[in-house]
Amino acid sequence: MVEGPHRRTPDQLRSRLWFDNPDNPGMTALYLERYLNYGLTREELQGKKPIIGIAQTGSDLSPCNRHHLELAKRVREGITAAGGIAFEFPCHPIQETGKRPTACLDRNLSYLSLVEVLYGYPLDGVVLLTGCDKTTPACLMAAATVNLPAISMNVGPMLNGWYHGERTGSGTVIWKARERHAAGEIDYEQFMDIVASSAPSDGHCNTMGTASTMNALAEALGMSLPGSAAIPAPYRERGQMAYETGKRIVEMVWEDLKPSDIMTREAFENVIVANAAIGGSTNAPIHINAIAKHIGVPLTCDDWEKIGFEIPLLVNMQPAGAYLGEEYYRAGGLPAVIAELIAAGKIHERAPTCAGATIGDNCRGKFTWDREVIRPYDKPLKEKAGFLNLKGTLFDSAIMKTSVISKEFQDRYLSNPSDPNAFEGRVVVFDGPEDYHHRIDDASLNIDERTILIMRGAGPIGYPGAAEVVNMQPPSVLIKRGVFALPCIGDGRQSGTSGSPSILNASPEAAAGGGLALLQTGDRIRIDLNKRSADILISDEELRRRRADLEAKGGYPYPASQTPWQEIQRSMVDQLSEGMTLKPAMKFQRVAQT
Ligand code: FES
Ligand code: MG
């Protein structure tokens, strides 16, 4: 049994400071009267019932999470059935496919605003309605900072997409269709039809992109009810899980079971293991490291390599595999994956969860019946599915998912028998995504099948929020010759729905003085996966000269901010390896108790 340190009595409810505080009748009356005005009674507000926030991330601006407008009704019914009172409120929208310049810009803004709401209003606990990529980390980061009893519930993936008898997965199909479009195989109309087919219902991306990843990891962390993350949005089980989630948060308030009781170092280590086994997104280290920082658990990109790299890929889901969210759910979802990992001795079974039991008790023996979709640990889809953390003169940290390296790539770059894990190449450098789009087909760049493409100016400062642009498509002449991928390195991010073997999240970014800022088109670089190194092959003296030149120019140039928030965030944001958190926020921990 997992509980917080003390059982709470009705007199110890936090909301009583607002609604029933005889020491301050003036303020109590003021708080009370306006919450009575829509029909709540004094008996409800002063009746010593937990007041539970429902953090609503769905709206017309957030199609991935929009189904939460319906699900929140079931959450509310669960809260009421368990003796609580539900207060639903809106969160700042973060729609991955709608927000410019990039949705990730708003993760920290949504985090900040949710912290203010959770701290400043009469809430005893909160249900976090998560889904689209950044909504999940933003909510969990805020829950960590405030440390009120909290439980997250995913909106669930869309149903499978289909086009002409083939599964079309969100995002992943775009990367494939854009290659076919560039190769002249399909026209504009077919391009649009294929991509639209991948979004057949309510819900978030149906691939193992960042949304499926982050919600699976919220469950692995212990912050969502077991089995909840993978339920497709339109399935009846999703509404039932909403009801159970509402019921459970009320109990968590009485148990005083808070994020700090659940998000322990062991739980984060479980998350890293789970991420490799599901084939999770390269965005996960950024967001998980951020959540860990806000709850005060040390976690680094070295931990991701040390704990996760050797773990095999068990889930056969796009982009790394073949299937989509419906098959994954029917095969057992995350509990079936954790059961495999437990049997292999890779999970800290005693890590607590919001369900009130340990992750071991929740998942042990819940093996899948469909071994095509969730593989046994000893017959995985791929070995070593975790991330490498590379370092060198190019950057202090960058993530690489080696399990997605294709046979073709391997033959071209890694086929030196004396050193099969190292490759060298000439680089072509792009300054941001616009520069790439303008120049990629420029013949004078001499891009061939052994060129390495560099994307810089795409980190948290250079392209505020860090753009998902590192997986660059080769020039169309190469695509027409059948070369669909070149190695890409960059200080930006890559979509979780892309299977490219890029080296990304490079920190520090060019705009923060990282080594990428010193590169010039035509330079050669060397990547050695055994040594985890990434270096510029030019002399130290030349590097020093370039560094001095860059500093004399005032550093790597980047475009001006277009909004106040872009400017504010740029002035105080950490690098991707550090979770892209806001530096001044770090001194605020567990604020609900202070
Ligand atoms: Fe929202 Fe993928 S775009 S989940
Ligand atoms: Mg994305």
TrEMBL record:
PROSITE patterns: ILVD_EDD_1
Record key words, sorted: Iron, Iron-sulfur, Lyase, Metal-binding
Limits of the Dihydroxy-acid/6-phosphogluconate dehydratase N-terminal domain: 49-362
Keyword Cell membrane among UniProt keywords: no
Dihydroxy-acid/6-phosphogluconate dehydratase C-terminal domain ranges (all copies): 372-579
Gene3D superfamilies (alphabetical): IlvD/EDD C-terminal domain-like
InterPro entries the UniProt entry points to: Dihydro-acid_dehy_C, DiOHA_6PGluconate_deHydtase_CS, ILV_EDD_C, ILV_EDD_N, IlvD/EDD_N, Sugar_Degrad_Dehydratases
A matching Pfam family: ILV_EDD_C
Similarity comment: Belongs to the IlvD/Edd family.
NCBIfam families per record: PRK06131.1, PRK13017.1
Family matches, as PANTHER family: HYPOTHETICAL DIHYDROXY-ACID DEHYDRATASE (EUROFUNG)-RELATED, HYPOTHETICAL DIHYDROXYACID DEHYDRATASE (EUROFUNG)-RELATED
Annotated protein name in UniProt: Dihydroxy-acid dehydratase family protein
Taxonomic source organism: Microvirga terricola
